[in-house]
Design goal:
- 45% of the residues lie in helices and 3% in strands.
- It has 193 residues and is mainly α.
- Strands 1-2 form a two-stranded antiparallel ribbon.
- The protein starts with 6 loop residues before the first helix and ends in an 11-residue tail after the last helix.
- Residues 128-144 have low confidence and may be disordered.
């Protein structure tokens, strides 16, 4: 019998395993297979968990002595993960001229099928809400709506990434934390493996 395992799935299992299981996996597959799985600031895809972000940054894992609300703890963890995903060489800086683009994970509350099944009036309402309240992020809060343009910023920069690809990874890989931070009575899908 032959069993094939994708290397990325094997590395994810290794990253989430306890020390004894890691030792077993290293003896079975060799240590070299898992070297890439170690969290590092040089490759954001090695940051698969909050604990990975702490290891890569050299920071202790947060322990809550004050019984903070779950959404506050989730936000604190997301901020740590965001800094780890920025990597070693990225230095985020405010851009007063607005010429630099940063990306924020954007979540849909409808599946593609649900949108396709909407009648034209429902879909029109959804699209007009999206156009009115589109994705926006920034360092502060800006709202200009009575001039020739309309712009506003509501989301904190600390959760933004410098590329769309990283923002997508941040949203998908850490979907459970994002849900804990943002949720109100909804369920979430699976994270990337």
């Amino acid at each position: 019998m032959k069993v094939e395992i994708e290397e990325s799935k094997l590395q994810t299992a290794y990253a989430n395993a306890c020390d004894g299981v890691k030792d077993f996996m290293e003896s079975l597959f060799g240590k070299k297979v898992f070297e890439a799985a170690k969290p590092t600031l040089d490759d954001y895809k090695t940051i698969r968990t909050y604990e990975d972000a702490c290891k890569a940054l050299g920071e202790p894992i947060f322990e809550d002595p004050n019984n903070l609300p779950n959404h506050i703890i989730a936000l604190m963890k997301l901020e740590t993960i965001s800094r780890a995903l920025w990597g070693r060489n990225f230095q985020p800086k405010p851009d007063g001229e607005g010429s630099k683009v940063y990306w924020y994970p954007w979540f849909a509350l409808w599946t593609k099928k649900e949108v396709e099944d909407m009648n034209p009036e429902q879909r029109g309402a959804l699209l007009s809400a999206t156009a009115l309240y589109g994705a926006s992020a920034g360092f502060g809060s800006l709202h200009a709506s009575t001039r020739s343009s309309f712009a506003y910023a509501h989301f904190g920069f600390r959760l933004c990434q410098e590329t769309e690809e990283k923002a997508k990874y941040f949203g998908q890989q850490f979907i459970e934390l994002w849900a804990e931070y943002l949720k109100f009575n909804f369920t979430v899908g699976n994270r990337l493996k």
